[in-house]
Please model this.
Amino acid sequence: MIETNLLLAAGALMLATVTVAGPTKAESFPPIKNQTVKTECGECHMAFFPEMLPRKSWVKILNDLGNHYGEDASIDPAPLKEIIAFHTSRASDVLKSRGARKWREGLKKDEAPDRITTAPRFIRKHKENDYKRMWTKFKVTSNADCVACHKDANKGLFDDD
Amino acid sequence: MKTLHRTIVIATAAILFGGASSSIAVANPARDDIIKSFATQAEMPFSAERGKALFEAKPGGGKPETPSCTTCHGTSPLKAGQTRAGKLIEPMAVSKTSGRFTELKKVRKWFRRNCKSVMGRECTPQEKGDFLTYMSSK
Model:
């Protein structure tokens, strides 16, 4: 218990330092506060922002978690329902926010990318040479690892390129 | 108060010896109960050796991206692994990650998912118990 508290205190201190030191940036997306989404999605990868894909994409992806990009990522029915509701109500073609608008730009009618990395916005923002340079620089092993390059990605901040 | 005192002693011991001891198994009642629950459905006593073999095996039958437990967890349970999406996985050995295998719901969920990913089927209670016995011994 005491050890945990110490760790927590140390963690909080580190977070506080980063927050104070970092310049204020515009938020691309509001940080995800839903605990089910944070836990269930965030155990294997950063909990991606629902604004990055249209509704149809999320319906397809979240209803096929038993076959999730080469892994069984199945979730119990109750949390799954909550996660689907969270994502579909904030999808790029549902939400009116700036972030959602940016991510639906370039999508064809009824287009439903099955990966964030194949969404038009992602492709536009990750031009071949720069992208490769960053991968090498930060020793990135997966293009699902936003945080490798976008250090504040978890907070919805991607404005650091 | 007595509990708190004991916590302090354990925490201090963990701080003092945590770095040096790599093979001292840390007993935990919740984990013991989970292992016992598998034991009632198993055919033979659990074996850390069989657990080790299972952890390192490439059984086939699962998804091509995840041929073995070690694909993501790494070959040493004492070291951290990495998910295919790049996220750190705390070491599986209970001497390194004390909270491992202490929550039945979590244990069930990850066995279900990962056995299917690696072997294309659920693990048997025997396999689960062997696996947990191995990780508890590390």
